[in-house]
Amino acid sequence: MLAVNRDSTVRERLGSAHKTLRAFWELGKPRINALLLFSACCAMIAAARGLPPLRLVLVVLFGLGLACAGAAMINMWFDRDIDRVMARTESRPLPQGQIAPGVALAGGLALGLVGLSVLYVGVGALAAWLTAAGYLYYAVLYTMVLKRSTPQNIVIGGGAGAIPPLVGWSAVTGHLAPLAWLMFLVVFLWTPSHFWGLALYRADEYRQAAVPMMPVVRGERATIAQMLVYALALAGVDLAASRFTVHPLLDLILSGLLNVWFLALHVRLAAKRGPITACAKRTFQASLVYLPLALILIAATSV
Questions:
Q1: Can you give the pLDDT at residue 13?
Q2: How many CB atoms lie within 10 A of CB 275?
Q3: Which residues belong to CATH 1.20.120 in the chain?
Q4: Distance CA 229, CA 276 (A)
Q5: What is d(CA 302, CA 178) in angstroms, rounded to the nearest whole number?
Q6: Could you give the count of Cα atoms lying within 13 Å of 7 in the half-sphere of its Cβ?
Q7: Cα separation of 68 and 119, whole Å?
Q8: CB 137 within 8 A of CB 173
Q9: CA 163 → CA 34, 102, 157, 196, distances in Å?
Q10: Segment 268-279 mean pLDDT
Q11: What is the CATH number of domain 177-303?
C-alpha cells in the first residue's frame, strides 16, 4: 500500500514539474522566437556566403534564443492584465495562474542576462550589444510604452523583431553591411501586414482590452490602406536586396514573384467590400509564409 502511494506521489510530482516546465516554455513565446532565430540564421548564411561554422551557429542560437525568450517573459509579465481579457491570450500561463508573476519577471531578467553573457563571451561585443538593444526595445519600449499608447505601436516596435538578422550578420563578420540592414528592413516592413492582418479580425478583443491597435483607433479602411503602403515599401526593399547577393538576377526574379503574390493579397483586401474577416485572416496567414521565403531567397542566392 505504501509503495502504491509513493508511486502515485512521484507521478503527481513529475506531472506537476512537466506542467511548470511547459508553462515556462510557453512564456518564452517559442513559435515567435523560432522565426527570430531563423532570420538570424539566414543572415549568417548570407554573411558567410555559405554555411557558417557549426559552433558559431549553436552559440548564436543559444544566446539569442535565451535573450528573446527573456524579453518575451517580460512582455507576458507586463501584459498579464490585458492577456486575461483577450480570447487569443487568455490561456497563457500567467492568466491561468500556472506561473507566479514575480517568477516570470525574474525568469525574464535572468534569461536576458545569461543570453547576453553567452553572446558577449562566445561571439563578440557587437552581437551582444545588438541583442541587448533588441531585448530592451521589445521588453521596455514596445511592451511598456508603445503598445498601450499609440496605434503605431507595432510599426515602431517592429524594430525589435528586425534585430536578429543584424545579430546573425555581425556574429559572422564582426561588422554590419548593406545587405544586413536590408534584411533588417525586410522584417521591419513586413510587421504591419502581419500584426495588422491579425488585428483586423481580432479588433473586438483589442478594443475590449483597451489596446489602441490601428483597426480599433483608425478603422478598417485606414488600416488596410497603410498595410498596402508598407507592403509596397517591403517589395521595394526586398527587390533592392538582390543587388547585394551573389546571384542577383535569380533573386530578383524569384523575389519579384513572391512580392507580386503578397501584394495581390493586399490589393484584394483593399478592394473587398463587406465583411473582411476571411480576407484579413488569409493576409495574416500569407505573412507567415512570405517572411521565411523572402529570407530563404536572400540567403540561398548569397551562396
A1: 65
A2: 10
A3: 177-303
A4: 18
A5: 13
A6: 4
A7: 12
A8: no
A9: 14, 28, 11, 20
A10: 93
A11: 1.20.120
Q: Does domain 20-175 have CATH number 1.10.357.140?
A: yes
| Exposure letters 244-261 (e unless 16+ CB within 10 A, then b) | bbeeeeebbebbeebbee
What pLDDT is attached to residue 2? 57
pLDDT of residue 20: 85
- Residue 287's contacts (CB-CB under 8 Å, 6 or more residues apart) are 190, 193, 194, 197, 262
* Grid cell digits, residue 103: 517568477
- Burial (CB < 10 A; 0-12, 13-18, 19+), residue 133, is middle
| Pair 66, 30: CB distance under 8 Å | no
pLDDT value at residue 47: 98
Q: How many residues does the chain have?
A: 303
pLDDT at res. 18: 79
